Amino acid sequence: MISSFITTKLKTITMEKFSQLKQLLESVETDFTAFYDKGNKAAGTRVRNAMQQFKVLAQEIRTEVTEKKAQ
How do residues 18-68 score in pLDDT, each as one tens digit? Predict the structure, then answer.
């Protein structure tokens, strides 16, 4: 019973993080365009910051997937 609860909770947390990844990627699209098409350096900084956040979230998801596989 407790194991099932933990598995369900872990899945929920992982899916939330995956949703955050998708939202983050969508939110930075305008800055990508501003940086690459218009040369806006501030937009480039925002892109780099977003990619760092993306990296952190992706690593957290990888860790959770690895834990799930080990069960």
Answer: 899 999 999 999 999 999 999 999 999 999 999 999 999 999 999 988 988
Task: Count H helices and E strands in the chain, helices first.
Answer: 3, 0
Asked if 10 contacts 71 with a C-beta cutoff of 8 angstroms, the reply is no
pTM of the model: 0.78
Structurally, the chain folds into a number of domains equal to 1
45 is a domain residue: yes
The packing angle between helices 29-38 and 2-27, to 10°, is 30
Establish if 59 belongs to a structural domain. Answer: yes
AA identity, residue 55: K
Q: Is residue 1 domain-resident? A: no
Quick check: is 10 in a domain?
A: no
